[in-house]
Amino acid sequence: FELLTLTGLNLEITGNAYWFIPRGPLGIPQFIWNIPSHWVKIVPSQTNFIDGYVVTVPNRPTPIPFDESEIVHFKYPSPSDLFYGQGPLWGARLAIDLSNQIKEWGVNYFLNNAQPSGILTTDSSLSADQYQRLRDQWNEKYKGARNAGKMAFLENGLKYQQMGSNIRDARMDSITPEIRDEILALFGVPISKLGIEQHSNRATADASD
Questions:
Q1: How would you label 138-173 residue by residue, b for 16+ Cβ within 10 Å and e otherwise?
Q2: Residue 31 phi/psi, 5° resolution?
Q3: Which of 23, 37, 74, 109 qualifies as a FRET site for 6, CA 20 to 30 Å off?
């Protein structure tokens, strides 16, 4: 189970999967070891296409050479490389990056943004102590998800001016399903496999499966 799972993961992510198969004295395979695909470098040959493989293990300074016959290389065809495959992740990379950025932005929005979002202005100058006190009080009252939307009370001629956008303006509720569907389509996974049933009934879910 672990061998097949890791092989599938390497293929889907990198387009390549490698098995190391050591053989006994009679040439009979003894074991099958999955090698993480990002450890492996192919050594091209001028006569036999591939001379062998070099495996660089993290925290081990010396690469390990393997003969071509010791490694089984599974790969998805690549339009740009004869030696290495190309996985679905390559086609989905922008959608996945966008999904990660949106999630990271949302987390940082709630962690860092002091709501209401904007600037405080005053016609008079503030001393260092006044500025520090005002900043500490503002962050204490309005920073973080728990304080979002609280009403601000200002003093000493301070004026509040809203800037930027809030989390509702980002329309993440409409963007994220589009990103999800694009990633699912590139990997060939029906949405019913995620337990989301708004687009299908039991019959179509079984057919998709």
A1: beeebbeeeebeeeeeeeeebeeeeeeeebeeeeee
A2: -145, 165
A3: 23
- Asked if 75 and 17 touch (Cβ cutoff 8 Å), the reply is yes
Angle at 208 between CA 203 and CA 209, to 5 degrees: 100
Cβ-based burial of 102 (10 A; exposed 0-12, middle 13-18, buried ≥19): middle
**What three-state secondary structure class fits 16?**
strand
Q: What are phi and psi of 160, to 5 degrees?
A: -105, 135
pTM of the model: 0.62
Give the C-alpha separation, 25 to 178, whole Å. 56
List all residues 6 or more positions away from 40 whose beta carbon is below 8 Å from its beta carbon. 16, 18, 53, 54, 55, 71
Q: What is the pLDDT of residues 108-122, one digit of tens each?
A: 777 765 455 566 677
At 28-39, the pLDDT tens digits run 889 999 999 999
Residue with tokens 């996974």: 189
Cα separation, 72 vs 55, in Å, equals 13
In a 10 Å sphere around its CB, with 0-12 CB exposed, 13-18 middle and 19+ buried, how is residue 46 labelled? exposed
Task: Count other C-beta atoms under 10 Å from residue 184's C-beta.
Answer: 17
The CA distance from 186 to 46, in Å, is 35
